[in-house]
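During the second year of the project, the team shifted from modelling isolated chains to modelling whole assemblies. The rationale, set out in the original proposal, was that interfaces cannot be judged from single-chain predictions alone. As a representative example for this report, we include one of the complexes processed in the last quarter. Its constituent sequences, exactly as entered into the pipeline, are reproduced here:
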Amino acid sequence: MANWRSAWLLVVVACGAAQAVELPDTSVERPRAREAGVVIGLLPTGPRNAIVDVPGVAVGHATVFEGDAIRTGVTAILPHPGDLYRERVPAAIVIGNGYGKLLGVSQVAELGELETPILLTGTLGVWRAADALVGWQLAKPGMEEVRSLNPVVGETNDGYLNDIRARPLRAEHVVHALEIASTDNVQEGAIGAGTGTVAFGWKGGIGTSSRRLDEGQGGHTVGVLVQSNYGGRLTIGGMALDDVRPERTASRGANDVPPATGDGSIMIVVATDAPLDDRLLRRLAARALLGVGRTGSSMSNGSGDYVIAFSTAREVRRSGDTARHAQQLLSNESMSPLFDAVVEATEEAIINSLFRATTTRGHRGNVPALPLERVLPRLRRAVDAAP
Amino acid sequence: MANWRSAWLLVVVACGAAQAVELPDTSVERPRAREAGVVIGLLPTGPRNAIVDVPGVAVGHATVFEGDAIRTGVTAILPHPGDLYRERVPAAIVIGNGYGKLLGVSQVAELGELETPILLTGTLGVWRAADALVGWQLAKPGMEEVRSLNPVVGETNDGYLNDIRARPLRAEHVVHALEIASTDNVQEGAIGAGTGTVAFGWKGGIGTSSRRLDEGQGGHTVGVLVQSNYGGRLTIGGMALDDVRPERTASRGANDVPPATGDGSIMIVVATDAPLDDRLLRRLAARALLGVGRTGSSMSNGSGDYVIAFSTAREVRRSGDTARHAQQLLSNESMSPLFDAVVEATEEAIINSLFRATTTRGHRGNVPALPLERVLPRLRRAVDAAP
Amino acid sequence: MANWRSAWLLVVVACGAAQAVELPDTSVERPRAREAGVVIGLLPTGPRNAIVDVPGVAVGHATVFEGDAIRTGVTAILPHPGDLYRERVPAAIVIGNGYGKLLGVSQVAELGELETPILLTGTLGVWRAADALVGWQLAKPGMEEVRSLNPVVGETNDGYLNDIRARPLRAEHVVHALEIASTDNVQEGAIGAGTGTVAFGWKGGIGTSSRRLDEGQGGHTVGVLVQSNYGGRLTIGGMALDDVRPERTASRGANDVPPATGDGSIMIVVATDAPLDDRLLRRLAARALLGVGRTGSSMSNGSGDYVIAFSTAREVRRSGDTARHAQQLLSNESMSPLFDAVVEATEEAIINSLFRATTTRGHRGNVPALPLERVLPRLRRAVDAAP
Amino acid sequence: MANWRSAWLLVVVACGAAQAVELPDTSVERPRAREAGVVIGLLPTGPRNAIVDVPGVAVGHATVFEGDAIRTGVTAILPHPGDLYRERVPAAIVIGNGYGKLLGVSQVAELGELETPILLTGTLGVWRAADALVGWQLAKPGMEEVRSLNPVVGETNDGYLNDIRARPLRAEHVVHALEIASTDNVQEGAIGAGTGTVAFGWKGGIGTSSRRLDEGQGGHTVGVLVQSNYGGRLTIGGMALDDVRPERTASRGANDVPPATGDGSIMIVVATDAPLDDRLLRRLAARALLGVGRTGSSMSNGSGDYVIAFSTAREVRRSGDTARHAQQLLSNESMSPLFDAVVEATEEAIINSLFRATTTRGHRGNVPALPLERVLPRLRRAVDAAP
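Output from the structure prediction step:
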């Protein structure tokens, strides 16, 4: 995938909606947090500072941006390039606040494994996304006799920028995201499942980050991808940005302002090549929520805050055909460095989603991008104050 | 709804598939368990011995029976006739074995309430069913500004009798089941979500039962509806029927026999008019699994065994518009009689599903009805042996 | 241990309470269920039909029977004869009804392992039992630097036969049970933690049973030990014994009758040599509750119904000293025969606890043993009625 | 209680250990965070900025400081001054990381209520503390017929400063903490259960804080009390204090340094007068962990991070004598301000525990107090950098 704009054009064409539409303001100049000098935590990142630093993990976006009111999309995360149904990866889901429609929860809890890619999308699109994923996967060679499949599909509510009740997501969008998924750099911001999301009153979206432990701690990588759509008291690197607040510009009426409160949601996908089983992954996933908290969230009532974690390590994969699995697992005692890593990577992935997202006009109004020109001087002053 | 056959014809017509098909053997003579003298437990039933004995609860089926291979359907359970979104009922979900795709689990756990009807259907139809339910409910008057909804849709795998990979369920089936839902008698057996299910190697399906506590214990009713599709060592009223086993008749090949093992699933819906909150409902739901165990199940690996419980009592309903809810709750100490009731009603609902289901031929073969002519003499001898 | 009566005498002497007390009626003639022709389920038992059929598992009882009113004790279950702190076994706890004081729950859930033996005792004795267990284990060689330990101690309420408020359990009782624990036959009935318990209005206590899978299913053994102290509608082998009910003989006043309701509790310990991790053990433990249900329980409000399961397989043990564990685990798909085994063994262990327990007089009255002379003819008639 | 030093003397005298011991450095000058100008969050505090701002809540400490090596204690939190057994308060426990011995977990989860005060103490003292609490409560008037009680006792590991294996806690310490519990100001720092704890390599201990919502949001108070004994990257008000690190001074050998890692634990008690049931309290408790995360924790493997929350509102109390409870509950939608409150109060309570704790020498060495003279200038510079 050359760049995300061409990917998006592909989708529009595929959907037969190739008429002129208002393109989002994709100023390529918006930097990632670290490029702007904002460093979260102490651990080094992987080479691309992205979930795809975990070898084999691929990400694909389909952006659904149509007319004045359709601002949604889907993001696919594939744990490895092989046959997921037959080479399952251990997985766990942790729920910070269960106000959300994440599909597949109970089977992952029972069997401790993923057998499909993960999809993220907008709230009212989850069921069609799941149906499309199932159709796509059942049509693969070797799946002819499979009659059950547990798709894992998460969502946040993009209903301010997107005419969510129109349920515009279609199967071809899902297939597109799955088919173009790549282990290359992950596009961030207002793209894929992040097309219409809002975070802290600013444009949110997709963000990613990674951490790599040194060899003495196992040399493992933890990668995180988020779909940010929540709120609270925006805090970057520990600094609460109380004086940088979005003006509310209502397009149609008094109530038509972007979500003012913390309501909304965040979906967090955690990948690692550390050999963890589902219990250890559950422990890892639980820590990601601490990273959310550090950005100023208190997981408000209406916020669906979910973490899905999986391990790509070959020594923990499960073939459906054998009566026994040989595993090489990390011990409980080896987990703490991974916990540090996931907290840092989650916080930075969220900040990246805000830094990279661009001002977007949509269904019920306009949501501005985080004004880096105001934010960065504030953060630099704080850094200068440190010793 | 006059009788289920005409309801079924309605559906077939609605689907434009009104050509001649092999009708299921709906011998009206097949009795319910209690009509045949098989009495489960000690407590009295409600007047109809059905989930609709809980005032306000309605049930609707849409049967999708097309050609040689489509044997599926959907069953809708509506907790009350009002606006469920604005008059929510407390609810809880308990998972015996989480191998299944029940949608809506995490939000029910977090918020402790239902805001939509419950649907049951076949495994690969859950996502379309949920999508259709959402469309139906969002189109209702007063729902114009609603942008999030948490449908609860369960499933069992009807992939032996039904060409499940064809995913034949369509939105109109779901709407039909919702629209015709009635507080009258519940049709049982090979109907609705039970059209293609198999239990203990025999034809399973929908079954229902109820219990009513005496006034000294509160006078509450507990109603249960099941979609039976699981297995084990079939046990009726405590008697294991080891010598009454279905012959396996493969229609197409050596593997084409009905599920021999306990794999499959059971969905259990529990309704009560006792004023219970979500915690007390979770406690109630957990006991329903004991009723499953009494029929000979050990909740095998591939069996998704789920219980969804809700209370219809007005004093525990929740309006979304108020900051406070007044509640009148039963105490923990008052729960034990309800626990007895739900165990008995679940066991009897399952037996009813087997007694009422009729021999069905479908996609991969033929599944016989439980041969009552062999079973009943066995059970009568046991009863005669009792004092 | 030669026989349980001499073990009991040891304890009494150790406690300096060797004056004459009313000995329980330990008629050696009371058979186990299977010896009396009552066969539960279809699977074969292990050689001793006891939890000690799982190699390495040891059980020890200390019976505290003093004066007219002290009827309690402690039962210790040791997963293997080695250093449990350094060779931990995977474990899981499942809660049917959480009305109970089982200690150690949260750490077992988090870390998925046992690092101490398991103790069972009476309700108000759990804390002293745990304290004594910790003292015993910390005093072992090699434990000098250990400053944290997670004892797992369960209980049921023996407060009818036992003057529970006197809290008579002492550290030496606990040490005795741990020290004499043996891999030989397990004594059942009114002994150890079962000294003062009541089940279905009859004298309950300790019971055990096992199942052994054939080699084609892995050849694994599942062993169960219960402390029965609950109630419901007593059902043996599927037959409800409504006409065999204890007369209530109050010793001191109108309220001084044995528990009439299902309140009470049951503690269930499940051991297996199948290589299971904590998630698979959690799945196994959940099924044990179905065995409880088959005996007529609906897990009443006041009944604390807990299952603790562990695996003794060497290939899943965890040394605290290594960063990685190699494991050989059963697959999800291999679990169903183990599920059948644990349901059957739990049901039979409960029946054994009733068959072996003897009439006991204590603090608030007398609790008769289950009258086998009335029960067995009833069960035989039912068996004769079967084909 | 005039001041904590005299309270401590009381205990020492009560224990017959009144010989001269090295008193802790209780420089009365150490301020609370807010007194030193460190303000956490945006919401106003209650009048005393303490858990006792929730009307009726009382706190009592017993400090066990004996010789060179005994540095432990117990802290009691009483939800209201009445008969807790008969006027139970709704309660919930949330586990961030379950490496810990918190007693009472499963019954609180099942019944959703507290029936005893809460105790905090050192790890190996929990069982004796629970036993003493039970004895104390069973001896109260009106408790003569009570034969079951579920004490809730938490712990963190004070095994660096305290000779934890000596298990010095005795019943009289527990009774003392319960009897002197007061609704007055709460003493913080190295006192009670905080006597021997270590946080971030500095002396930790007891800390407390509160928040009060304005009347428009219900006017409710949320109070938090912590026992801090964990670690990570110390962060105060968002500022990571990487350059303020304790020197490790080993007293006896290379390994005798205070815990360098995040291992340890934190116990958090949350009280509120908002009318919440156990589910809403569970939601509230889950947010407290975000406050822990903001101080720099990633909930390391060995850290037992627990939250116990209860509501004192009269309209949700439960009498054991009635078949029904009338409740006035907050709605889900009213919870978000309370979530903000608990995150802020938890973070501030932790900072208070560090600000108030004093340098303590004990079993294996010396743990310095957080050097406020270095920390405060750092924090002031950061505040000055803000707009």
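The two ends of chain B are 43 Å apart (CA to CA). Chain B touches chain A through 37 residues (CB under 8 Å).
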